[in-house]
Amino acid sequence: MVWPLLAVLAAYGPAEARRLPDRFDAVQLRKGLAAFDRHDYTAAGLLLRSPAEHGNSRAQGVLWFLHTYGRGVPQSFREAAMWWVSVP
Questions:
Q1: Rg of the chain (C-alpha set)
Q2: CA distance 78 to 71
Q3: Integer angstrom CA distances of residue 44 from 1, 9, 11
Q4: What does pTM read for this prediction?
Q5: Number of domains comprising the chain
Q6: How far out from the chain centre does Cα 57 lie?
Q7: Residue range 2-27: average pLDDT?
Q8: In 3D, which of 13, 16, 7, 8 has the Cα closest to residue 88?
Q9: Backbone angles phi, psi at 67, to 5 degrees
Q10: Is residue 26 part of a domain?
């Protein structure tokens, strides 16, 4: 069962392999986006940080919104700008 993983790592290279979301980040992303949809901005901010740090552009965009408007997190244009620059 190691061969499929090695094939993925060989295809993407070491830098891209680090950005592949693991199962925990995928669950957090799903829960975080659901929290954002139901306007639970505090939970969304907490749940989406890890996927955003691992390069998920949807999570980064939501964190940009939350920090820009101070929804569920402290309003910080510096933090919002960091997430905006991270979005590919």
A1: 15
A2: 15
A3: 35, 30, 33
A4: 0.71
A5: 1
A6: 6
A7: 55
A8: 16
A9: -75, -30
A10: yes
